[in-house]
Amino acid sequence: MDQVGLVRKVSNGEAEVEVRRISGCGENCKGCGGGCNVPSHVVVLSNDINAKVGDFVEIKGETKNILKYTMIIYMVPFVFLIMGISLGMKFLKNMSISSYEPLSFLIGLIFLAFGYLVVKFIDKKVGKKEENIIKMTRII
Questions:
Q1: Does the pLDDT at position 27 exceed 70?
Q2: Cα-Cα-Cα-Cα dihedral of 4, 130, 12, 51, to 10°?
Q3: How far apart are CA 88 and CA 120, in angstroms?
């Protein structure tokens, strides 16, 4: 994955880089009719190339790692949601509660929140080990 970003701020060996997302239609507004109002994202990266404010930089990341972390971010909470709903239905149905579906969904939402906490924990652990998943490679 290659992107170009604009350095907005530099401090303590890190750079705040504004990266414009690539639209789903490839920014061909005539093809999709969507208008292509694509918002920018700001990422904080290690400034190993001594970029300065206002520099355009090339950003590279391994697609394999990016997909792996994307799967973690989306799938862990989803699995917790399904697990919470399933367990809620099983236990509440056995307790002969008449309206167990809404309560099961509520339990699923509680599990979903717990799933987000698990993702946050994983992010902190992975962030310490592999700090440079996405890197600035050169100044353009």
A1: no
A2: -30
A3: 24
